[in-house]
TrEMBL record:
It comes from the Bacteria. This is MFS family permease. It is found in: Cell membrane. One of its GO terms (molecular function) is transmembrane transporter activity. Residues 27-436 form the Major facilitator superfamily (MFS) profile domain. It is a multi-pass membrane protein. Residues 235-249 have a biased composition (Pro residues).
């Protein structure tokens, strides 16, 4: 397909949306708030899971299958976010998707309230309804998350410097705030529906206020009198809303193949989060003899370090470049996870957890950026596919570790995570070679 002519609809749209640099800077913080609201909405749901387990009268195995519904829904979305974004744009998708997700999450909380032991014996239908609502929330989260990253990548392109990692720090902060305030609400005896309704209303209000600053997907930079002297605006490339047709050098099959190492890199970064959330507490209790409260500090240490790493990650990316930053980050992750699994002294274990969080901080956002830039695919398809496959890996990782743990010591089974980081480290080299080819 030939490039769009100056009189084409795409070119007319680009001319219709010039964006000054100060507006791009404002859009950066608006997108960060979008990430924060998304993290807060889902983070607020987590403290109510024990209430759901008690309300539905589930044992541990059945409860484990129930909470997978959220991740399963996200994985079921597949590449759906890409055509949705091309049709309606990231701004509309973020706003509409967040409103609907708030309603679904509140409905899930109401199902828990109505199924509480005081209300009588819960019906099987209530359990299935709760699972279905979690699945729908997962689908919506996949779409909204892709839209947020699309908006973040649009801002990053206009600023011509890395900023996406610090936006993901907003998600980490929001998830922590949502979970923390949710725990306080549960401790105060607040009904799940009421708490999730208030939380959702605040998240939607913040997003609506921030949404006025979002950039159109076909925005282009405009001369800015406020820009420092000598600072050139980024050259307007192809509009994100205009399909990138395969060129002779990048046929469609080669484009899909180029996504593979990027996806492996994303999985390696996501695996560290899965290790922290799903397995750290169990490992510290069963293998290091910590009590429940102290073992819970393991995941907190990792996630706090990840948040700090995301605050400074963009500066590192700007200084070292994507390939060297990814390679160094994943090398730190490999060493850190090995330290966690083998160190005999508890201080070293927590040092390893902190290093793992720092190391993984930039990996997923950078993989998203690399996937979105793979030529030969329709707009946002690479971003959506990398996110989808990463979520699929998240569903498969913990069952795989559980299966291995039936015949191996737990530390040996958990070696899956540093092994995945090694594969990601190898993938950074493949990504580098592919991107150097003409």
């Amino acid at each position: 397909m030939p490039p769009a002519s100056p009189s084409s609809p795409a070119a007319r749209r680009a001319r219709a949306h010039p964006v000054a640099r100060r507006d791009v800077v404002r859009a950066r913080w608006a997108a960060t708030l979008a990430f924060l609201t998304n993290g807060a909405m889902l983070g607020a749901l987590i403290p109510h899971y024990p209430q759901a387990k008690a309300a539905f009268g589930l044992d541990a195995d059945a409860f484990g299958l129930l909470v997978v519904a959220l991740a399963a829904g996200a994985a079921a979305a597949g590449s759906l976010p890409a055509p949705v974004l091309r049709r309606w744009g990231s701004r509309r998708v973020m706003l509409a998707g967040t409103v609907v997700m708030a309603v679904v999450v509140v409905a899930a909380g109401l199902v828990v309230d109505l199924s509480a032991p005081a209300q009588g014996r819960p019906s099987a239908g209530a359990v299935w309804l709760f699972a279905a609502l979690l699945g729908v929330a997962g689908i919506l989260d996949a779409v909204v998350d892709t839209a947020q990253n699309a908006q973040g990548l649009t801002v990053q392109t206009r600023l011509a410097r890395p900023v996406l990692t610090s936006m993901h720090a907003g998600w980490s902060l929001g998830a922590g705030l949502g979970a923390g305030l949710g725990a306080l609400a549960v401790g105060a005896g607040m009904p799940a529906g009421l708490h999730l309704g208030l939380n959702g209303a605040v998240c939607v209000a913040v997003l609506v206020a921030a949404g006025r600053r979002f950039l159109p997907d076909d925005a282009r930079p405009a001369p800015d009198a406020d820009a420092p002297e000598g600072t050139a605006a980024p050259a307007p490339g192809p509009s994100p809303a205009t399909p990138r047709a395969p060129s002779p050098a990048t046929p469609r099959a080669a484009a899909w193949l180029a996504l593979l190492p990027v996806t492996v890199v994303a999985m390696a970064g996501f695996g560290v989060e899965e290790f922290g959330n799903a397995w750290t507490a169990l490992f510290l209790q069963s293998e290091r003899g910590l009590d429940v409260a102290a073992a819970g500090l393991g995941a907190s240490t990792l996630l706090l370090a990840q948040f700090v790493g995301r605050l400074v990650g963009d500066r590192v990316l700007h200084r070292l470049g994507r390939r060297r930053t990814l390679a160094g980050s994943l090398a730190v992750v490999v060493a850190a996870l090995v330290l966690v699994l083998t160190a005999p002294a508890m201080p070293l274990v927590f040092v390893g957890l902190a290093l793992a969080g720092l190391g993984c901080a930039v990996v997923v956002p950078t993989a998203y950026a690399l996937g979105d830039k793979v030529p030969g695919l329709p707009p946002r398809t690479g971003l959506a596919v990398v996110s989808w496959l990463m979520r699929l890996a998240g569903i498969a990782l913990s069952p795989l570790v559980g299966l291995l743990a039936t015949g191996l010591p737990l530390p040996a089974a958990l070696a899956v995570f540093p092994a995945l980081a090694v594969l990601g480290l190898v993938g950074t080299g493949v990504v580098g070679r592919r991107r150097r080819r003409p």
